[in-house]
Amino acid sequence: MNDSASSAPCNPETFPLEENDDGGDYLAAEPTIRLAAFLGVLVVMALWELAAPRRRRDIPRVIRWTNNIALVVLDTLILRLSFPILTVGLAVMAEERGWGLFNNVDLPTWVVVIASMLVLDLAIYLQHVMFHAVPALWRLHRMHHADLDFDATTGLRFHPVEILISMGIKLAVVAALGPPAVAVLLFEVLLNATALFNHANIDLPRPIDRVLRLIVVTPDMHRVHHSVDPSETNSNFGFNLPWWDRLLSTYVALPAKGHDGMTIGIEQFRTRRDLWIDRMLVQPLRGPACGGALEAGKDAE
After folding, report:
1. Which end of the chain is less packed: N or C, by CB atoms within 10 Å?
2. Of 189, 184, 136, which Cα lies nearest the Cα of 161?
3. SS in 3 state form for 166-232?
4. Which residue, among 105, 78, 80, 65, has the nearest Cα to 30 in the 3D structure?
5. How many CB atoms within 10 Å of residue 136?
6. Which pLDDT band, with edges at 50, 70 and 90, does 6 fall under?
7. Prediction pTM value
8. Distance CA 274, CA 188 (A)
9. Can you tell me the distance from the alpha carbon of 117 to that of 7, in angstroms, rounded to the nearest whole number?
10. Tens digits of residue pLDDT in 156-189
């Protein structure tokens, strides 16, 4: 879950700071850094998907790409209009006002930066599990799973309400943790980049994948999470680091039918018309909320 598991690729902060303040430098640079990283990784993944696809594509790109990209633009606008301050700006404010754990302990900067990024990543993992576990939240999150193909643009496909809830959670974590602004910026850039990478339809050599998934979530690892089989949907929740799934017993190495034989998506929404943005936005209101982690195999609500 982005925020690309949970946030849009470019979200400028609005908290006013003095021009010479280091925090102001981070805020001024954030939109450019995040947008450049987002576009750069998206283009690389798109070209890689064309050159070496992992799975055969079933749906024309023009349908999926136009609607998935339109959705991320809408998400960005709504997020920008809904919050006067986002994560990097809040980290700067917390540092100035002494909020949060790391602003009240004396630790080396490198330790605080690494610890902050680890805690933020764990929070995203737990948030992702929560969106599967709670039927009302699954109604929002299942739109991400209802994509009928799996490629880099799937990593952009999140309901606007999920994006808002996810940002609220991240802001709460930042306020409580008090991480350095540079750690938050690095985390946001990495999260967006890895969400594009691990949703990409790219054919990584198997030996490379086996090694790489020890340190980062790979496309083959995350693709299992997009299986139509609920027991596989409710696994491999990590977006960036793979360790939480292994430590908390939610890791599944391979889909039962293999990557070529597995079906992508969920049972409820399987028509091409369901891929259009107007239908995506109303999916939370349609049908039962089945398939969540605590409701696997049941119809809820």
Report:
1. C
2. 136
3. HHHHHHHHHHHHCCCHHHHHHHHHHHHHHHHHHCCCECCCHHHHHHHCCCCCCHHHHHHHHECCHHH
4. 80
5. 12
6. very low
7. 0.87
8. 30
9. 16
10. 999 999 999 999 999 999 999 999 999 999 999 9
